[in-house]
Amino acid sequence: MIVAEMSITPIGEGTSVSKYVKAAIKYLKENGVKFQTNPMSTVIEVEDLETLFNVVKKAHEAVLEAGAKRLITDLKIDDRRDKEITIESKLKAIR
Amino acid sequence: MIVAEMSITPIGEGTSVSKYVKAAIKYLKENGVKFQTNPMSTVIEVEDLETLFNVVKKAHEAVLEAGAKRLITDLKIDDRRDKEITIESKLKAIR
Amino acid sequence: MIVAEMSITPIGEGTSVSKYVKAAIKYLKENGVKFQTNPMSTVIEVEDLETLFNVVKKAHEAVLEAGAKRLITDLKIDDRRDKEITIESKLKAIR
Amino acid sequence: MIVAEMSITPIGEGTSVSKYVKAAIKYLKENGVKFQTNPMSTVIEVEDLETLFNVVKKAHEAVLEAGAKRLITDLKIDDRRDKEITIESKLKAIR
User: Fold this and answer.
1) What is the ipTM of this complex?
2) Cβ-Cβ contacts under 8 Å for B55 (sequence gap 6 or more)
3) How far, in Å, are B25, B35, B59, C7, D71 from residue B29 at the CA level?
4) Do C90 and D40 touch (CB under 8 A)?
5) N or C: which terminus of chain D has fewer CB atoms within 10 Å of its end residue's CB?
6) Is D39 on the interface with A (CB under 8 A)?
């Protein structure tokens, strides 16, 4: 699996942007994506790179559709090929 | 408060790096820093910028002391001045 | 246009990783992608999100093909819809 | 030396934020910091971690003083201890 971290930040819609972040989370929920939110970003677990980029694209587009005129979207991908990683295995490893 | 997200990645110590991440977390725990780990990073809440940079410096140094020869440390800071933010307020806003 | 910043970091291939970074840059060059390298990342300018994600996927895969077993890939996207942005317009704006 | 990448993004000051970015760059220039701007971020080369965090703190504060009410500041640090790195050595390595 691929574990990644995404944050989508609207620039120019005022200092309160949770309405826009919620639009991205709504997309993840309604499309059965495995994810965890935290105070700074959303962690996603997906099967492969193609799925990941499709999910990020759709979440980004959901925030544009909510009315944002400029977005800074950050993505950090952890792609490990010598061993299977998941949200759970990564959390367990640092406990 | 300032809410920030930190990740410290050793380059060149093999593909398994949890031993090094644990050295940073140990520093946070032993020094009473308010933090939350997630599968991709650690979220920190501190009083001000000076405290934040001191905490990140010490956590980074703890990973060097654990033996890492090269580190990529990522930091994302959310500094809001028109309204108080905390780990809890940020989580609540997106629910 | 979309302007984005990408960095691909192999974990576990030693502290010197330029061989891997060059594999990603080679892909960009050979495929006519508009890009600029800097000491920390590569800035890319593309037509749309779909092109961007395809380019990042291919560059990431080029580094895997070069032999890396674990990659941390960072991507920051600037997607502005109220005004056209390019690598040049962004540089000019801060001069 | 430590090579790092910094970006400071005001949230809630409209979609055009170059005025704020310029305040950070002005600080770097007037204080003799070695840096290079690119379309997505500013690369900094400094002697040590303490200098780095001081520079980032001052640049961040310069943007607050320019009137921004909320800032997302991103920092990526490359700290290599087995070999000296500089802006120039990193650029040369990927050519």
Assistant:
1) 0.97
2) B28, B31, B33, B44, B46
3) 6, 8, 11, 31, 27
4) yes
5) C
6) no
